[in-house]
Amino acid sequence: MSIPFIDLKTQYRRVAAEVESGIQAVLQSGAYINGPEVARLEERLAGYCGTRYAVGCASGTDALMMALMALGVGPGDAVFCPPFTFMATAEVVALLGATPVFVDVDPTTYNMDPAQLDKAVRAVRKADASLYPLPLQATGTAGPLTPKAVIPVDLFGLLADYAAILPVAAEHGLFVIEDAAQAFGATSEYSGATRRACSFGQIACTSFFPAKPLGCYGDGGMCFTDDPELLELLRSIRVHGQGADKYQNVRLGITGRLDTMQAAVLLAKFEIFEDEVRLRQEVAARYAELLGGLPGLTLPVVPGGNVSVYAQYSIQAESGAQRQELLERLGKASVPSSIYYPVPLHLQPAFANLGYKPGAMPVSEAVAGRIFSIPMHPYLTAEAQQEIAKALAG
Ligand SMILES: Cc1ncc(COP(=O)(O)O)c(C=O)c1O
Fold first, then answer.
1. Would you say the CB of residue 219 lies under 6 angstroms from ligand 1?
2. Is 105 helix (H, G, I), strand (E, B) or coil?
3. pLDDT digits over 50-74, tens only?
4. What domains sit in the chain, N to C, each tagged with a CATH number?
5. Is residue 221 within 6 Å of ligand 1 at its C-beta?
6. Is the preceding omega at residue 341 within 30 degrees of 0, hence cis?
7. 227: alpha, beta or left? (left if phi > 0; alpha if psi -120 to 50)
8. For residue 175, what are the contacts with CB-CB under 8 A and spacing of at least 6?
9. Residue 368 and residue 377: Cα distance in Å, rounded?
10. Are 308 and 300 a contacting pair, CB within 8 Å?
11. Pocket flag, ligand 1, residue 111 (CB < 6 Å)
């Protein structure tokens, strides 16, 4: 049996007729840019996430970039983000000339640790790296950076701890940009109500990269907000800072539109999305049963009140050596695996100019040395999971 890491082919067979008729309609219409499918998708997904507005865009990275631009983030600003995430989260901050300030993650959920966020903001305000490890730019002669925004990431499909993060952000006057690239469809109990991913912060961002819980057949992304002024800014930034008409440019922007064809694909795939979230829960429950007894493994922890969409099923080994052994066993059994993420962002060469040293973010570094991900998708069969468990058990 060949086991795919993510099975997009089986999913395609389920939605083929709807996807193909949706694409055909776009082809026939000629409205390849900004066709009516884009607005229809924005309305549908905003309704699903519980926000007033949504703005489709070309990728999750562009969604983050547009959010930072709409909030006026630039040189001299500190933007707090976790180092244990995909490159894009901090990359967009640096691309805009602002400074990423890393905040270590919680060892159980792998999401940003709210207590450390508070410490990091205080350290930036005082320009004092003895209070919390800071980038070189935060203690330079240019004066302290301005704490401007925080980007909590909903890693592997589990929402960050917004009940704890939002009050810290409010106390320090930080904008919150939710990076929900991996968590579209996840929910959490918040203030006595069920809240969905993409409904936290001034602006939330997601990705429709094919491997994401809701993926299209190319690149795509979306911003979500309740604020009509931010909506106008995001729409303007999406198309070169356009003003009242197409050839009036009132600010700098990007080419950030979502293709009509991808919107049509997403409209078709969204019809089965809730069922897929349910299937992901079944797959995760079977993994918990099959792998729960294996020595040294820490399975994903989903705190009470949360539903994860398991963008990845990530397991922590007790050591780097055990991980190596497990990955070899999986390889021998032809079971695909992956490491998200082997090097935390504060130690990536691209961020060498920030001057972080090994040891600065101990939890992220320890987790990066031990974590690995195994196949996870809604169509994973019990038999395939048994085979994966057998390979892991050795
Ligand atoms: C946490 C996180 N943020 C941002 C992105 C960027 O999304 P995209 O690949 O659509 O640009 C990703 C995608 O992998 C991600 O995982």
1. yes
2. strand
3. 999 999 999 999 999 999 999 999 9
4. 8-270 (3.40.640.10), 273-393 (3.90.1150.10)
5. yes
6. yes
7. beta
8. 71, 73, 148, 149, 150, 169, 201, 202, 203
9. 23
10. yes
11. no
